[in-house]
Amino acid sequence: MLHLEHSWSWLAVMVGVLLGARPSACRDLSGSRPNILLLMADDFGIGDIGCYGNNSIRTPNIDRLAEDGVMLTQHIAAASVCTPSRAAFLTGRYPLRSGMVSSNGYRVLQWTGVSGGLPTNETTFAKILKDRGYATGLIGKWHLGLNCESSNDHCHHPLNHGFDHFYGMPFSMMGDCIHWELSEKRAGMEHKLNVCFQIMAFAALTLTAGKLTHLTSGSWTPVVWSTIAATLLFVTSYSIGVLIVHADCFLMRNHTITEQPMHFQRTTSLILKEVSSFVQRNKHRPFLLFVSFLHVHTPLITTEKFRGKSAHGLYGDNTEEMDWMVGQILDTLDMEGLTNSTLVYFTSDHGGSLEAQLGKEQYGGWNGIYKGGKGMGGWEGGIRVPGIFRWPGVLQAGRVIHEPTSLMDVFPTVVQLGGGEVPQDRVTDGRDLLPLLLGTAQHSDHEFLLHYCENFLHAARWRQRDGGRLWKVHYMTPLFHPEGAGACYGRGVCPCSGDQVAHHDPPLLFDLSRDPSEAHALTPDTEPSFYHVMDTVARAVEEHRRTLIPVPLQLDTLGNIWRPWLQPCCGQFPLCWCDREGDPR
């Protein structure tokens, strides 16, 4: 019965659209209750997709989505790194509002066993749609926290944020999961531990020599304790890599750890199997499924079927495997007869990583003509991402929209499509995309968009209503290393503040409608509207700041240091090991 009601509602909407329904169709669509499939890549450069101009990496399935749907060319992430961008995507709010940022360089959650995470008082689109009768699932990467006070309170868990079902990594794929040379934290920790070991060992040897030569008096207690400390530091420095793999690189199904650590060569098949199972279980009721790919984040785990097949090394192989996964998921919809009643969306959480480089090998994405990349709060390459919507029979196939839109817009869009209401007790920064997608509106509802790096405002854009020009103002930009390079090579990621960031007074100004690569900064001498633009954007920034309410920063040190009592473990800590998956083949 639910399935029939779902189908009739959807058909009624299609008839209305085909008969030429105008803006009122948006209200009709909110009652259509389509299935909603959200696909998000990890660290995926906008320049790596065929439909966005790449002709050397094969992405036929993503390209097919664009051919059959609507493609956004100015789709913007709310942050240039994972955790804050995903928080904004789920809540429709700048991450600063929920406290999902830091002020001291901790750009993302650093461990699974930390107390920081998406606060329980934040409302996700999954929570709203679940209350409206949707089956809600998240498969893949989470990276928004897990526990608050114990290893199983699950306060930040996806199931506590509106998802009925979760399968995937509560943390994130990273090079440290396979002890890779490109390390997020292991290499740095090993270096610090080795330095501390050397200092402590030197102290122990000095104290021992003093005692043996009778140059010092007193007990042997300092010698014993310094020797114990040196030994512990030495052992820890050589075992920290193994500890990280077990602490962060595991799979969960709902609240149960199923694989710790992960067996990476079967992860792709396990995820696809889970997607198929979720769709089959819920095909007779409306569902929301968020597939959060582990691709294409380093270390680029790729199955043998795709290794060595692309023209761009391991990154290209990984990209083409993800595209194949997209095709498999779309085929599942086809086989279940759900294609025409499902809104599909594809995006990335932010731009590709330029610094993911070893020698001459590039392991991060390409951001096309856009300057910068992952971790750069203001430059386009870090925040401009693919945005593709497909809904056969409702959205006109092959349309391209050149209006500023945001990942935050998905929140009000899917909430209203699912028959829910956007919360009125808080500021929502996303805007309903349906009028733009349907063609009943010609321009985006975003006049201004702000671009933060941690809690620092790096840039802002203004879509000028009269004249159609798109202005970008940069208040702060990272200093590239080495000088003249296009990224912060050798530093992992560009900083948001400190002496490696330039403060611009007056700010840098670019006209993105004529200079999307941000290659030519405008000045009062070259742009007559310079001061008018600066004043207009400054007023918008001040108005925005008046809407901010101070909240605890979840990614600052207090919420972002590893705590053993918060560490999920499927055995007796620290012997965390289990395999409840078996071989899926």
TrEMBL record:
Its cofactor is Ca(2+). The keyword Calcium applies. Keywords: Calcium, Hydrolase, Metal-binding, Signal. InterPro entries: Alkaline_phosphatase_core_sf (IPR017850), Sulfatase (IPR050738), Sulfatase_CS (IPR024607), Sulfatase_N (IPR000917). GO terms for molecular function: arylsulfatase activity; metal ion binding. Its EC number is 3.1.6.1. SUPFAM superfamilies: Alkaline phosphatase-like (SSF53649). Residues 1-26 form the signal peptide. The keyword Hydrolase applies. It holds the Pfam family Sulfatase. GO terms for cellular component: endoplasmic reticulum; intracellular organelle lumen. Residues 34-419 form the Sulfatase N-terminal domain. PANTHER family: ARYLSULFATASE FAMILY MEMBER, ARYLSULFATASE L. Belongs to the sulfatase family. This is Arylsulfatase E. It comes from Canis lupus familiaris (Dog). The lineage of its organism: Eukaryota, Metazoa, Chordata, Craniata, Vertebrata. The gene is ARSL.
